[in-house]
Amino acid sequence: MLYQDGIFFSMDQDWLNSFQEKLDKHHAWPSLYIFKFIVPSGKEEEVIALFPKHNVTQKASKNGNYISLTIQMMMPSSDAIIEVYVKASVIEGLIAL
After folding, report:
1. Taking the alpha carbons of 80, 33, 85, 35 in that order, is the dihedral positive or negative?
2. pLDDT of residue 9
3. Domain with 45 in it: what CATH number?
4. Which domain holds residue 71?
5. Res. 13 pLDDT band, cuts 50 70 90
6. φ, ψ for residue 87, nearest 5 deg
């Protein structure tokens, strides 16, 4: 499940198509893309594993219950970005911003 604009939603095909259209409208590929995720503490390594060759910036929440992760990387296409989100969507408790 992902979180965007204050709403939790699952990644159905209509949403993926809409998201891909927005990415293609606002980016010229290849393009630098910033991924931002929030996960419960203890789940951050699952996100980091999706980006083995990239620097992942981490910040713990005030009480340490959650970790925010930010990753900047050059992406070749909107398909590649969607592939990352699909892989990340199986991480329990993940919020994609």
Report:
1. positive
2. 47
3. 3.30.70.260
4. 2-96
5. confident
6. -65, -40
**Full DSSP string of the chain:** -EEETTEEE---HHHHHHHHHHHHHH--SSEEEEEEEEEETT-HHHHHTT-TTS-EEEEE-TTSSEEEEEEEEEES-HHHHHHHHHHHTTSTT-EE-
Q: Name the domain count of the chain.
A: 1
Please tell me the distance from the alpha carbon of residue 46 to that of residue 84, in angstroms, as a whole number: 12
Residues with Cβ within 8 Å of 93's Cβ and at least 6 positions away in sequence, in order, are: 39, 40, 43
pLDDT at 8 (0 to 100): 44
pTM for the structure as a whole: 0.84
Q: What's the mean pLDDT when you consider all of the chain?
A: 88
